Amino acid sequence: MCYGGFSNGHAIAQALGGVYHEHKLVHGHCCAITLPAAVRWHANTSAGQIRKLADSFGVPYGADEISSIVADRLAKAIIAFSKNCGMPALRVTLEKYGIHDDKDTFVKKMLPAVKQDSMSSKWRPPIHEDDTRIIEVLESVWNDD
What is the pTM assigned to this prediction? Predict the structure, then answer.
């Protein structure tokens, strides 16, 4: 997964933990929160790795199925797995710690942290070309539940 670009979910997790560190967000939980967004982001550039991971999760797909559909199914399976392991979604976690950010506030806080993180600049396809791409990934992280 590292060589397929999924280390970039780790980079977003690093920024997430940095922004919300005073609320004791655990790094592993941050990785679980950001992995579905990374899977979706890399649907077309890492289709082979996504299919291998889908196999591991028992996610069905057809040989000719569009990569983004497989990635979305896999992302949902990862979210379900995380919940079954007792790791709630981002919004639930923030609420637990008394953080009542909405999506816009979350993106506003996270955008500079992601841009400053050395690992997220290595995303392929790159997200640092403009803020719109980073915001797209952050909104995906926020919307996953």
Answer: 0.84
Domain tally for the chain? 1
- Say if CB 44 and CB 82 are below 8 A apart: no
- Domain containing 28 equals 2-143
In degrees, to the nearest 5, what angle opens at C-alpha 133 toward C-alphas 136 and 111?
A: 80
CATH number at residue 61: 1.20.1090.10
From first to last of its 145 residues, the chain has per-residue pLDDT tens of 444 445 567 778 888 999 998 777 888 889 899 999 989 988 888 889 899 999 999 999 998 899 999 999 999 999 999 999 998 899 999 999 999 999 999 999 999 988 887 666 666 556 666 788 889 889 999 998 8
